[in-house]
Amino acid sequence: MNAQARLLSLAVICLQLFSESRAENSEGLATAREGKLESLGVNLCLPHSLIAAGVPTRPAPSLPMPEGPSSGKNSPKGQTVQPVSPPATEMPIIEKEKQDSGSNKPAAKATIEYNESAPTAQGVPPLGIVQALNEALINSPRAAAIRAQFAIARSKYAQATQTPNPSFFMDRGLLAEQVMRIGPQFTYEPPWKLIFRLLATKRLVAQTKTDLLTTLWQLRADTRRAYMEVIVAQETMKTLEQLYDLSSKLLAVTDKRFQAGDVPELDMLRARLANSQTQVELAVGRVRVIRARQQLNIIMGRPVHQPVNVPGLPDYTGSVPSFERITQLNEAMPNFEHLVPPLRDYIAIGLANRLELKSLDQQIKLNQINLKGAYGNSIPNPKVALGKSTEGNPPVGPKLTAVFFTVDAESAFTNLNQGNIALFKATAKQLKYQVGSQKNLVIGQISSAYQRLLAARERLRVYQERVLADSYEVARLARRSYEVGQSGITTTLQAQQYNVQIRSQYLDAVMTYTQAFTDLEQACGKPLQ
User: Fold this and answer.
1) 195 lies in the same domain as 261
2) Separation CA 117–CA 240 (nearest Å)
3) Is the pTM of this model over 0.85?
4) Peptide bond into 125 cis (omega under 30)
5) Strand runs (DSSP E) across 158-287, as ranges?
6) Residue 235 and residue 460: Cα distance in Å, rounded?
7) So what's the pLDDT on residue 414?
8) Prior bond of 398 cis (ω within 30°)
9) Cα 477 to the chain's mean position, in Å?
10) pLDDT, tens digit, for every residue of 410-438?
11) Could you give the percent of the chain with pLDDT greater than 70?
12) Are residue 30 and residue 134 in the same domain, yes or no?
C-alpha cells in the first residue's frame, strides 16, 4: 500500500509538472523541472512505468475514478461508463493559442462566421422545379431573344410579296425617224409564282418555329440543371455543417480527455486538424450555394441577389419517420410508389413529339413547295410596254400620233430551271433517309437515357432505404465509442470521413438521376413532369 501511494503521488507530481510545461516555455523552468524529477528519483519515462504497474495516470486522485476498460487489468469487462474529468486548472490549449495569437479562430463549438453577403430564404415561398422551368421560359432574357427570332422569320412574308417594279420607256428619234415613244414598261409575273412563294414562306416559318422551340427546349434542360445544382449545393453544405458539428463535439471530447490525461496530445491535434479542415470545406460549400442560387436567378431572369428558397431533399438518416418522408418528397426526386412505364411507351412519345422529327417534316413540305415553284419558274416573265407614239412622217408629213404596244418575252429554250428542279428532287430523297436516321437516333437516345434512369433510380432507392441511415449510425456510434474510451480517434475520424463520403456519393447519385431524367425528357420531346 505504501509503495502504491508513493507511486500515485509521484504520478501526480509528474503530471502537474507536465501541465506546467505546457503553460511555460522558459528554458530555465524546464531545467528546474528536470532537476526536481531527478531529486525525487523519477526519470522522464515515469508514466510508462506507472502504466505497467497498473496505476491510474489521471491527474485527479482525490476524485473517484470510474471503472471501465481503461481503468486497469482487474476492471470488469463490458461495463460502459462515462469518464469523469476533474475541473480544469488551466486554460485549454485551443483557447490558449487563441489568446496568444490574438486571432479570431473559433472554439470547438463556435459557429462559423461568413462575411459573404448571401440571399436568405427566410419568408420566401418555396420554388418548385415546375415553377422554375415556367418562369425561365417566360421571364428569361435568353428566352426573349429566342422568341424574337420568330419575327425575323415572319418578315419573309413581306419579301415573298415583292414583284418587279415597272420601268419608264422612252424612244426618241429627232432627225431620221422623227419618232417619239414614251410610256411605262411592266414585267408580268404569272400569279402561280406568287402563290408558290407564299406557300414556301409559310412552310419556312413553321420550320423556323420548330427550330426555335428546340432551342427553348434546351433552355429548359439548362434550367433544370441549375435548379438541381442548387439542391445538391444545399445538401452538401448541410452535410458539411453536420460534419463540422460532429468534429466540434469530437474535439471537445478529445480536449476533455486530454486534460484528464486519458489520451495523448496527438489525438487532440488530429481532432483539431479534422475540425479545421471541415471549417474550410464548409466555407467553400457556402460559396457554392451562393453561386448556384445566383446562377438560378440569372437563368430565370431574376435579380442576382434576390432570395430564393429551393426545397431540400428528405432526411433518410433515421431522424424522420418514413410516413413523414412521403410528404417531404422533392419534385425533382423519384417517387418509388409509382412504377416507371416501359421503354416502348417512351419511344412512342419520342417518335410523336420529338421536335427534330417535326422539323424534318416541315423541311419535306418546304422542299415539295420549292419543287413546284421551280417548275413554275421555268416559264419566263414577259415584259410589256405601252404608251404614246408620235411620228413626223418625213419628208412631207403629216405628223401622226397614236398608241403603241410592245411585248418582250424570253423564250424557254436552253434555261428551263432544270438545275433547281434536280436539286429539290435530290433533297427530297435525302430528307426521306434523314427521317429514318433521326428516328433511329431518337430511339437510341431514349433507350440510353431510360436505362441510366432505371440504374440511378435503383441506386437512390438503396441509399435512401438503408445506406444513409447505416452510415449515419456508424458515425454516431463511433463517436460515442470514442467518448467512453472504447475506440481510438483514428477509427472515429475514419467513420466520420466514410459517412461524408457516403453522403457525397448519394448526392452524386442525385445528380446522375437528374441528368438521366433530363436526357430522357429531352429525347422524348415532351415534359415528363
Assistant:
1) yes
2) 19
3) no
4) no
5) 167-173, 179-187
6) 15
7) 86
8) yes
9) 34
10) 888 888 889 999 999 999 999 999 999 99
11) 73
12) no
